Amino acid sequence: MRRKLAAGNWKMNGSRASLDMLETLAAAHRVSTCDIVICPPHPLLFPAAKICGSGPVQVGAQDCHTAAKGAHTGDTAAGLIAETGARYVIVGHSERREAHGESDAQVRAKAEAAIAAGLTAIVCIGESLEQREAGEALGVIKAQLAGSVPDGSTGATLVVAYEPIWAIGTGKIPTLEQIAEVHASLRAELVGRFGDTGKGIRLLYGGSVKPENAAGIFAIADVDGALVGGASLKAEDFSPIIAALDAS
Questions:
Q1: What is the pLDDT of residue 149?
Q2: Is 163 a catalytic residue?
Q3: Residues linked to residue 38 through DSSP beta bridges, in sequence order
Q4: Of 29, 163, 183, 189, which is the active-site residue?
Q5: Which domain covers residue 59, as residue numbers?
Q6: Residue 74's closest CA among 90, 88, 63?
């Protein structure tokens, strides 16, 4: 059985004061049946991990470098992220792919670095609106999956997050049928590549997930949770999404 996962990506938001919500989440979901992860900006990783301790909420980072060390001003090695107490790291988010020109090969190298440091890599993939409207979505997603996911990945080292670029922060969302089609395709690709191991790799949906639509999304086969943006910044918004995942 794949343990479900609710992951929150704060992006370049939040502050030291924002970390108070971690205690609220932990108190509300002490008996949660799913994993809960908050990914704040890098300067907040250590204090966030200190607050979370061994409780139900875990901490992840939003990016890492491919190298273990070196002359890479402004970048952070996966090993140093692990030293903060973080357990996960997001790689290949569309905002990184677009704003920083990250290729599938670079995303794969970052995922490999994360796994080597003992972190679980959350690899993001997703199509643009133009690709969706041109009927290219599945082909684009399959190519990103093949190019971004490291060999030897397992359910313990890898999570795949499908985030259609056009649905991130826009309020737009694919139909449930479109989400189901993509997740079924991703599962088939993972099983085809990794055999039975591919059945244990969690697939998240991300893109304008809210308390109002979470239950419907989580009812879809092969949706093992969500990568949530803005709605993860406040406990009162994220907590109902976690509750919907628990109930699914």
A1: 98
A2: yes
A3: 8, 59
A4: 163
A5: 5-247
A6: 63
Q: How big is the chain, counted in residues? A: 248
What pLDDT does residue 173 have? 85
CATH number of domain containing 194: 3.20.20.70
Which one of the listed residues 65, 93, 102, 189 is annotated catalytic?
93
HSE value, Cβ hemisphere, 13 Å, CA-based, for 124: 26
Q: What pLDDT is attached to residue 134?
A: 96
Q: How many domains does the chain have?
A: 1
Instruction: Give the mean pLDDT per block of 10 residues along the chain (248 residues).
Output: 96 97 96 96 98 97 98 98 98 96 98 98 96 96 98 98 91 92 98 98 95 96 97 96 96
93 is catalytic: yes
Each as own residue / partner, the long-range contacts of residues 186-190 (CB below 8 Å, 24 or more positions apart, any chain) are 186/141, 186/145, 186/160, 186/162, 186/222, 187/222, 189/142, 189/145, 189/146, 190/145, 190/149, 190/160
Cα–Cα distance measured from residue 6 to residue 243, given in angstroms and rounded to the nearest whole number? 10
Q: Name the phi and psi angles at 9, rounded to 5.
A: -105, 105
